[in-house]
Amino acid sequence: MAVSLFNLVDWSQPTLWISAASICFNPIFWNIVAQNEYHNKTITKTLGGKPYLGCYFLAVTIFSLGLIRDYLYHDALKYQTKYDVIPYDIAKPLAAVLFGFGQLLVLTSTYALGITGTYLGDYFGILMDHRVEGFPFNVMRDPMYNGSTLCFLGTALWSRSPAGLVLSGLVYIVYTVALTYEGPFTDMIYSKRAAKSQ
Known about the structure:
Blueprint: H1 14-40, H2 42-46, H3 51-78, H4 88-118, H5 143-158, H6 162-197
Helix pairs in contact: 1-3, 1-6, 4-5, 5-6
C-alpha cells in the first residue's frame, strides 16, 4: 500500500514551520534589499558611498542567513518521522552524490562569479565585464540555486526524512519564484548598460 509523503510529516512540530519560514524569508529578503539598493542606494549611502563595501556587507548578511536557514532545516529534521521512501542502501549513496554535486555547483558558481557576482553586486552598480559561460553555467542556467536545492534533497534522503523532502520541494518552489523576479531584473540592468554604451 502506497504511503503519502505528506502523511509522514508531523505538521504539528513548530520546528518544521520555523524552517519553512526561513526558507521562504531568505530570497524574499535579499530580493527586496537588492531592488531597494538598485533604486535608492540605501546600503551604499549608509556605508559612506562605497558600493563594494555595501555589497560585501550584504554578502555577509546573506551568507549568515543561509547558515541560520541550514541550521533550522537540520533542527526540523531531528523532530520528524524517519521513513525510507526508497531503500536506504540506494538512498544513502544517492544522497551523497546529490549533496556532493550540489556543493560542486554552489562552490564553482561562487568561484566563477566572485563575491560581487554571487551576492548581487550588479544591484550596487558593480557589473561583470561579460557573461560567465564556463562551468557550471555551461551546464545549466541557475547552478547556484539548483545546487542548493540538491543539497537540501541529499540531506533529506540521508536523514531518511519525508519532511526534509517536503522542505526540499519548498526550496525548489521558492527559488523558482525568486528567479522570475531576479532573472528579468538582472537582464534589465545589463540591457541598460548596453544601451548606454552605444
